[in-house]
């Protein structure tokens, strides 16, 4: 048949650089290419297992909801799970992946080739177990120990992110050599497949739609909370999950940065800055920042100066990125923040991004000795390049941030929302 090779549209296999330029269709259709979610899940589980093996670990026991989703594609009450562990995952380097959850949640594992077995979870929190918490923790450790002995042998090294002291003690009584899991998971997540980049583009498209609604709604009298709610509503309506912070502020609340959205009304002539921090569709994070000017009227020269400096910082530091450059070199060669703005600088130059903010965090030269660590930028890392410019004691500030993919020759910018011409001009 002529054109028969195009009859099915289930596979998209661009390389990383090409994926940066594509936006997947986010509705089920037989006429357009679809995300290959099975390939996505297989890549992620393979990355995790490879990192565990490289760290001489036989398996991981995970409770972090983002790590569980990364390894399996299964999601259930993620925000609740962050403070009340009700599900957990056993991932051996070789052998069956076992997902534990409530009896009523079996559907969360249906159709997932990454999950070989579903078992009913034990209540590990005081909320569910009450005074029987210690008893259930010991039963849980017995079951984990049996799984490890069956699939990993005796006395192996096991990575876990469940830090509850009673759980750690109970696992060690099973003759398990425990190490923290987060480093293995973060390193696995740091290198993205093309399918992950496509997922990220979808999340960014949703965030950009929300940003456009905020920009259109920005009039005197609207509150910070009203503006911020438009991003959240857009994300939920388009299939996203949650927003990690409430980072939208205006006028005198813009500087210093990191003041959460409030019921403060925006006044004419003020700047409004926001950071999306948005976990969107398919669990991937869109993390871009923009600063708008509320009309009527034009920005002041001082506002334009702040904006131009933040833009210059982003562009300079983006040009430094390439595979093989060290974190230390990036810190040393980063844009020189003018003296008045050093104190209120953003906490990092740039950071990794995936299903949330993640490894690496690359620090300013001013913070290198106290917090910095070295490493190497690799192809197919995704990073967010940060800037906040606001003088100590100053009235306003500007927050900007771009999300990029590291390619063989440099970077491709994944965030597409335009900068403000009237703040860059003049």
From TrEMBL:
Entry-linked InterPro entries: Creatin/AminoP/Spt16_N, Creatinase/aminopeptidase-like, Creatinase_N, Pept_M24, Peptidase_M24B
All copies of domain Creatinase N-terminal, residue ranges: 44-191
Top-level taxon of origin: Bacteria
Start and end residues of each Peptidase M24 domain: 199-407
Protein name: Peptidase M24
């Amino acid at each position: 048949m002529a054109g028969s090779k195009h009859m099915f549209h289930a596979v998209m296999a661009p390389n990383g650089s090409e994926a940066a330029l594509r936006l997947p269709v986010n509705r089920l259709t037989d006429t357009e290419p679809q995300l290959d979610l099975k390939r996505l899940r297989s890549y992620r589980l393979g990355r995790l297992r490879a990192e565990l093996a490289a760290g001489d670990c036989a398996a991981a026991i995970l409770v972090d909801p983002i790590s569980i989703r990364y390894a399996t594609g299964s999601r259930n009450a993620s925000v609740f799970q962050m403070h009340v562990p009700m599900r957990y995952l056993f991932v051996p380097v070789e052998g069956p992946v076992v997902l534990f959850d409530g009896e009523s949640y079996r559907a969360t594992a249906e159709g997932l080739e990454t999950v070989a077995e579903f078992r009913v979870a034990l209540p590990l929190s005081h909320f569910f177990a009450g005074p029987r918490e210690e008893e259930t923790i010991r039963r849980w450790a017995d079951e984990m120990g049996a799984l490890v002995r069956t699939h990993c042998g005796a006395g192996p090294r096991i990575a876990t992110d469940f830090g509850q002291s009673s759980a750690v003690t109970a696992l060690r009584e099973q003759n398990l050599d425990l190490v923290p899991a987060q480093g293995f998971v973060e390193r696995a997540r740091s290198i993205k497949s093309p399918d992950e980049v496509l997922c990220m583009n979808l999340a960014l498209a949703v965030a950009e739609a929300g940003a456009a609604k905020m920009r259109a709604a920005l009039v005197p009298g609207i509150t910070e909370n009203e503006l911020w709610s438009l991003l959240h509503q857009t994300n939920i309506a388009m299939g996203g999950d949650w927003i990690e912070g409430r980072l939208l502020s205006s006028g005198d609340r813009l500087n210093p940065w990191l003041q959460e959205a409030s019921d403060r009304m925006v006044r004419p002539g003020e700047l409004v800055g926001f950071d999306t921090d948005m976990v969107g569709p398919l669990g991937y994070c869109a993390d871009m920042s923009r600063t708008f000017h509320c009309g009527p009227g034009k920005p002041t020269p001082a506002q334009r100066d702040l904006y131009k400096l933040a833009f210059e910082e982003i562009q300079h530091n983006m040009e430094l990125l390439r595979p093989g450059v060290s974190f230390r070199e990036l810190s040393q060669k980063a844009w020189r923040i003018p003296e008045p703005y050093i104190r209120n600088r953003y906490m990092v130059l740039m950071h990794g991004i995936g299903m949330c903010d993640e490894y690496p965090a690359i620090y300013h030269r001013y913070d290198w000795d106290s917090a910095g660590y070295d490493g190497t930028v690799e192809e197919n890392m995704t990073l967010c390049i940060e800037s906040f410019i606001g003088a100590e004691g100053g009235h306003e500030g500007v927050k900007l941030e771009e999300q990029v993919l590291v390619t063989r020759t440099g970077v491709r910018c994944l965030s597409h929302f335009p900068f403000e011409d009237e703040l860059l001009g003049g």
